[in-house]
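fold-stage: in
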Amino acid sequence: MTFDFNPTKVIEKAPSYLLKEGPHFARIVSAIEETSSKGNPMWLVDYEVEDSDGSLKPLRDWISLTEKAQWRVKWFLADLGYDMTKDEMMHFEAADLVGRRLGIVIEHEPSLKLNPNTGKPWTPKEYQTRDRVPGED
């Protein structure tokens, strides 16, 4: 296997940020159909989210397309403005989602992983900004 890269283009440490909790506006900039690690179909959805300072931040979501997750697909499509009251089969492709806007709510949840320095779960801010050890996540 050949691995090509230009070391002058490597970002040493990506800038980190944590969107503030609460409501935000988001726009879908990319949506593709993928297969989950368990072999299930899903949409991989990338958003631009307007932060409280007006800047746009990326956010990624995975929407499972399994029968058990149809409730979430319904909520997601309704939030995008699709009429979910029609009693008919609807057909969607991931590309149909690009450019659509929706409101989202950001909620921070503590990590289940323990901070080795404190022995306590990582707080969202600590987990977002910590230096990661390769293979740890």
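fold-stage: in (second)
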Amino acid sequence: MASSPRIVIVDPNDLIPQQVEAAFTLIDRYVTTIKVFLPDDALEEVEAGRVNTVVAAWQLGRGVQGWELAAKVKEIDPNVHVVLLGNYRDDPEPDDEALEQSLFVYLKRPYAPPQLLRILEAAIDNRDIFEAQYQK
């Protein structure tokens, strides 16, 4: 029997885990979520090969940005999906050109819950999260 998809959630403010868990409850899908506060803890999970998706805040505290974590995750395992969520409405927004070539999907607040749900579902089904970002 295959194990459920494993998602590491990195959020120093502890807001994202509730959003992710609620999203999967809505679609009646079971996932294992691993909540961590520090990027290094997420990297340990990725290095152990136990994760298929990392969801993280754009700003991780202590001067660490989510995009830096995304780059390290992809360096360890290019098959792990990475989704970054804005912490605040005034988070910097990467330009379109940077996002087109990025290693992650970025959603700035306020993001639409259906869009987050499509992206997360694509991630656990191992589909293209970038394509899911723009589906309606």
